[in-house]
Fold:
Amino acid sequence: MKIAQITLTLSLVLFGTSSFAKLPPPPPVDPVAAAAKAEKDKAAAEKTKVQQAAAEDKAVKSFQAVMKKAGKPIPKPTPIVVAAAPPPAAAPAKAAAAPAKAPAAPTKTSPAKK
Structure:
């Protein structure tokens, strides 16, 4: 039984991989269509952001209404701090102009007496 399963699996794998080799290459990308698709994706992303903001506002208002109805204090929102952008990397010309410091020569010390 196991030999039949292994044989079937191997034949399916070989058939599957050989079918990919016979597929034609994709057609070349049209620059006009690519630009139109990029604009469409950008508009869809902006629409999604607006919908997300509206859903978040609705959820917050609902939460506050439930808390108010239950007679519980409404917690104040926690401010979110955005991390500052890292400073730009040093220019390679400055790094190349600075001479490399030679490592300090090791000093000999006498072994500790017992």
